[in-house]
Q: What sequence folds into this?
């Protein structure tokens, strides 16, 4: 948002504050969606999650397009050139959302969202090298902040994971001692009563 304020080369929208608030709300809801999906991936069946995500996603998307984009949908002249981008987008989204639960199971929603932020750098590179346009210096600051966040999160995650594994081993050892002691006492009691 700050780069929009001091960049005079971009055309301003009719209501930039409203646009910024909508972007913030959308990003927040996307984050909530990813955290919820991570919870369900880690606590429920992944196949069931994907099935319901696909079913309800298709129903909600069909309702939205039939209500909000009815006229645009009617105006499309369906040719191979018009259909192929839709098919390509559908295949890309299918592959992306099929891989997301695996990443959520392994790394969590924080790593997913931080990783998605790095994809903006591709747009910056295309803008620089393909379109030969100038890029605001704030993009590089933001990318550096995201990269540092990824490194800090990845490093901190491994430390916490190792601590949790050591704690699990200690608890497991303690449970084994209690179980083996109980079994030995039970065997000793049975042997004493047989005599």
A:
């Amino acid at each position: 948002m700050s780069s929009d304020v001091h960049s005079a080369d971009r055309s301003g929208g009719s209501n930039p504050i409203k646009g910024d608030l909508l972007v913030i709300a959308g990003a927040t809801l996307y984050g909530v969606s990813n955290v919820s999906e991570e919870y369900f991936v880690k606590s429920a069946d992944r196949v069931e999650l994907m099935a319901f995500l696909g079913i309800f996603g298709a129903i909600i998307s069909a309702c939205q397009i039939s209500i909000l984009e009815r006229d645009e949908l009617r105006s499309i002249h369906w040719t191979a050139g018009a259909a192929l981008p839709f098919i390509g987008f559908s295949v890309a989204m299918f592959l992306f959302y099929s891989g997301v639960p695996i990443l959520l199971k392994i790394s969590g929603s924080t790593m997913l969202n931080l990783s998605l932020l790095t994809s903006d750098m591709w747009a910056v590179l295309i803008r620089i090298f393909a379109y030969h346009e100038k890029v605001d210096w704030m993009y590089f600051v933001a990318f550096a902040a995201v990269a540092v966040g990824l490194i800090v999160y990845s490093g901190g995650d491994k430390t916490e994971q190792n601590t949790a594994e050591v704690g699990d081993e200690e608890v497991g050892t303690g449970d084994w001692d209690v179980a083996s002691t109980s079994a030995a006492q039970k065997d000793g009691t049975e042997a004493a009563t047989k005599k």
User: Anything to note?
Assistant: The radius of gyration is 27 Å.
